[in-house]
Design goal:
With 287 residues, this protein is of the alpha+beta class. Helices cover 33% and strands 46% of the residues.
Length: 287
């Protein structure tokens, strides 16, 4: 009986051990399965990390491309702005080189005084029988500060001696009577000159087209000398004054403190042989 009880007790003790052994055997495969899952997770994480790295690299490349594009756009804008500024400067330079309505430079006539001298040729033929004569002229002017120094009030004096020769057949003399007439003339003019269009060129400098006019007085002395062959009839003199007007115009080419002047003038008086057409070349100095 005791032996039976010991056997039963032994069997009850071995049974749990037998059940525990299979359970332990099944646990090991589960551990292996967990390890396999961890490796897969690590591989998946590595793949995701690689993808993230590639995405970061692509984002970095895109950011670099955007930054480069922004820099290029900024450089293009700056270049465009510089080109526009250059075009504006070029246009401004071109505007100063083409004809413009511009005032004279202040140094042209700082005190407003003008002193001029000119020489020319006087053509009387359109108005009378006197011939062509050289002439000299002096002028004194004042340029007021108003009107941008375009206006100059002037007093002018001009000296010339036109002559004419005539021949008359007089039956009282064996030879033709030849008469020579000399017209000593001092022309005094009070008038005004206006510079109506000023231009500036980098090559030629500043120029002005001028127009003007005024009242003129002819103070003259006529000398007549006649002879027939060797017979002389003496010298006859006659003085007088004639009143009229004059209109003139020309070109001033400014050089330094003055201007080279090319001018034409048309003068006429209702009495006497005083009408003339004059062309002169001279210099005006500005003080």
């Amino acid at each position: 009986m005791r032996a039976l009880m010991m056997a039963l007790t032994l069997s009850l003790a071995v049974a749990p051990l037998a059940e525990a052994a299979p359970a332990g055997a099944k646990a090991a495969p589960k551990k292996k399965k967990t390890v396999k899952k961890t490796k897969r997770a690590r591989a998946a994480e590595a793949a995701e990390a690689a993808k993230a790295a590639e995405a970061a690299k692509a984002a970095e490349a895109q950011a670099a491309a955007e930054a480069q594009a922004a820099a290029e756009a900024k450089a293009a804008e700056e270049a465009q702005a510089a080109a526009k500024a250059a075009e504006e400067a070029k246009a401004a330079a071109a505007a100063t080189s083409r004809p413009v309505e511009a005032p004279l430079a202040p140094y042209r006539a700082p005190w407003g005084l003008v002193l001029g001298f000119s020489g020319g040729v006087d053509l009387s033929q359109p108005f009378n029988t006197y011939g062509t004569s050289p002439s000299v002229e002096l002028e004194l002017g004042w340029t007021p500060p108003a009107l941008e120094q375009r206006l100059t009030l002037m007093l002018m004096g001009e000296w010339l001696i036109p002559t004419r020769e005539t021949e008359i057949n007089d039956p009282r003399f064996d030879a033709p009577v030849k008469e020579e007439t000399r017209l000593h003339t001092l022309r005094l003019t009070a008038g005004a000159l206006y510079r109506y269009h000023l231009t500036h060129s980098a090559t030629w400098g500043q120029t002005a087209f001028t127009v003007g006019g005024g009242a003129r007085a002819w103070l003259y002395e006529i000398e007549q000398e006649a002879k027939a062959g060797d017979a002389a009839f003496g010298l006859r003199r006659e003085t007088g004054t004639a009143w009229g007007g004059v209109a003139f115009g020309g070109l001033e080419w400014f050089r330094g403190p003055g201007a080279v002047v090319l001018e034409g003038a048309l003068g006429w008086a209702p009495s006497g042989d005083m009408g003339t057409l004059n062309f002169s070349f001279g210099w005006r100095h500005f003080f």
